[in-house]
Amino acid sequence: MKESEIIALKSLALKVRENIIGMSTEGGCFTGASLSCTDLFVYLYKNFLNVNPTNLTDPNRDYLFLSKGHDVPALYGLYAEIGFIEKSRLQNHLTTDDSIYWHPNRNIPGVEFHSGSLGHLPSVAMGVALDCRLKNQTNKIVVVTGDGELNEGSVWEAALVAAAYKLDNLILVVDRNYFQANMATEELIPLEPLKQKFEAFGWNVQEIDGHDFNQLEEAFDLKNFGNGKPSMVIAQTVRGKGLPSIEKRADRWFCNFSADEVKALLGELHDNKPAELVSETLVVR
Amino acid sequence: MNYEQLITEMAERDERFVIMTAENRALLRNIPKNDKISNRFFDTGITEQTMIGTAAGLALRGRTPIVHALAAFLTMRAFEFIRTDVGIANLPVKLTGFIPGFLSDGNGATHQAIEDISILRGIPGMEVFAPADEEDMLIMLPQIWNSKAPSYVRANIAKPVVSHSKDFTIGKAEVIAKGSDITFLVYGMLFPHVVEAKSILEKQGLSVGLVNMRSLKPVDEQVILDSVANSEVVIAVEDHFKIGGLYTIIAEVLLKHQKTGNVRSFSLGEKWFKPGRLTDVLNYEGFTGTKLSERALALLETPVIKS
């Protein structure tokens, strides 16, 4: 990828992260999980998916299903920057005047389906993929799950069925940040070796650094998908990416910062000056 | 005409219909071999949740999936998928539950869907139906499947003992007879047994009403109000727990209209039924025509408490 293009994507990702931090107050949101998949969303919407504010009802558009619904601040944070929604609407977070709350819903343009209950959208996406294939369409169906979400049996059911139906228009992306809610995945229900597990289920699996735009470009090349198998991309990410003071911390899944902390975190995002945080660390939900 | 012929005919005519099953093909034996519609037939294996999620995805694309599984697993194993993916999005996914209620006969409590009406009707927008027999079901299904609402149907392929009115409307019951002593309100497979009970009681000189409820949500409120107003005793007969089924629906309707009445419940109370051969089960649990008539007579002999 050209250096100028990488700079542009990084600059967009920075704005999305600012938006996420901005929503992490006055009630808060799932900050840690949102920061881990920011670069992934930026890449997918800018460089991979054929979906934009003008084709949201076109049956030939590409679909992105956000199954790990709690990282929706990353999605809305991006939507506000690329014209899906007015940026001012982010100010409505958690007000009943709008529909911007902790999990995605279809009142927000771009959201293909509501989520929040984990392990649902792999099968919903499968239904869309089946219909696209019935209609001989070549659009791509991407579903993003968390890694903790892979605890849900319904994900594995869907993995079996997608392979049985040879759904090679389906791409499952795992935001592999190694944390689930308030625990490290490998300390609770270990997922490794994840790649081999899905390969054994009959999927094409790639494993990449989910913050590296060059690796994202290499992975999301159409030649990597197809051949009668569903595909999985394991995006290795860092919970809280961009804010070293909360990175890789089990207790910074959900964050509700004070106004001063938000200011300090925005500073940290831009110039790496560590923010001093005093708000409650572990918010168990 | 049977269930499979109807679904085949409707699917051949209308591309919106897709037919799905969680490896329950009892009513769908020939569809995989039918070239016109086999590409719209999806058997997801023994995965009720995945089938429902997939059906929601197909419905998002404008399809009307008709999905099949044993009633207990369809409504309970996949309940949260039905509620969350179909219910919240209000998608036209059509659920057909096989062997509901007593029809699970010898399987045991694991397979007994006797809370299905209660839990499904709790989902906003979900419509719930229980045909009396195969003929009744075939009269009802075209409207149910053509509607935009999600729905649940208790499948019933019993041969009819009476001919049903072709005039079906969602939310309307079929009044078989009006009676001033007893009126039975019944749905599903118990219908023919109540027909038999009615005839036994009539031979003893009683005036007996009978209503085939057909549509439990929306329910025919007027039929309930009329039955309660015109009959000494109204009996809700159901192969369902007492909570949340027809007896509860009647209570809700009466309260809504600020009425009361002498309404009794012949249900499974709060217990799973004793499994066995269907005829043995019905006899054991008191739901044969003879047993139902005896229980009704006993009720009439019990003084009504009036305040």
How would you portray this structure in words?
The complex is a heterodimer of chains A (285) and B (307). Chain A has helices at residues 3-23, 31-36, 38-48, 72-79, 121-134, 153-164, 185-188, 194-200, 213-219, 259-271, and strands at residues 63-66, 141-146, 170-176, 179-180, 183-184, 204-209, 231-236. Chain A has 285 residues and is of the alpha/beta class. In chain A, strands 1-2-3-7-6 form a 5-stranded parallel sheet, sandwiched between helices. In chain A, strands 4-5 form a two-stranded antiparallel ribbon. In chain A, strand 2 (141-146), helix 6 (153-164) and strand 3 form a beta-alpha-beta unit. The N and C termini of chain A lie far apart (40 Å). Chain B is of the alpha/beta class. Chain B folds into 2 domains: 3-154, Thiamin diphosphate (ThDP)-binding fold, Pyr/PP domains (Rossmann fold, 3-Layer(aba) Sandwich); 174-301, Rossmann fold, CATH 3.40.50.920. In chain B, 37% of the residues lie in helices and 18% in strands. In chain B, helix 2 packs parallel to helix 4 (79-87) and helix 7 packs across helix 11 (289-301). The longest helix of chain B is centred in the N-terminal third of the chain and has 13 residues, at 48-60. The chains are: A alpha/beta (285), B alpha/beta (307). Chain A binds chain B through residues 59, 106, 112-114, 117, 120-132, 134, 154, 157-158, 160-161, 164-165, and chain B through 39-40, 42, 44-45, 47, 49-63, 65, 80-81, 84-85, 88-89.
CATH topology of chain A: Rossmann fold
CATH H-level homologous superfamily name of chain A: Thiamin diphosphate (ThDP)-binding fold, Pyr/PP domains
Number of domains of chain B: 2
For the record, the CATH class of the largest domain in chain B is Alpha Beta
The CATH class of chain A is identified as Alpha Beta
One letter per element, helices H and strands E, the order of chain A comes to HHHEHHEHEEEHHEHEH
How many H/I helices of chain A?
10
Order of strands side by side in the largest beta sheet of chain B? 2-1-3-4-6-5-10
CATH architecture classification name of chain A: 3-Layer(aba) Sandwich
Low-confidence stretches of chain B: none
| Sheet with most strands of chain B | 7 strands, mixed
- Overall pLDDT confidence of chain A: 96
Overall structural class of chain A, as computed from helix and strand content, comes to alpha/beta
Count of DSSP-assigned helices of chain B: 11
| Count of all domains of chain A | 1
Secondary-structure element series of chain B = HEEHEHHEHEHEEEHEEHEHEHH
What is the straight-line distance between the termini of chain A? 40 Å
> What is the strand tally of chain B?
12
